[in-house]
Amino acid sequence: MKKPLFITFEGPEGAGKTSVLQALIEELKPILGDDLVTTREPGGNPISEAIRDILQPTEDNGMDGRTEALLYTAARRQHLVEVILPALEKNKVVISDRYVDSSLAYQGGGRGLGVENIWQINQFAIDGLLPDLTIYLDVPSELGLARVKANRQSKIDRLDKEALSFHQTVRQTYLKLQREFSDRIKIIDATQSLEKVIDDTHALIFNALDIPKE
Question: Where in this chain does the record put each Thymidylate kinase-like domain (predicted)?
Answer without folding.
Answer: 9-199
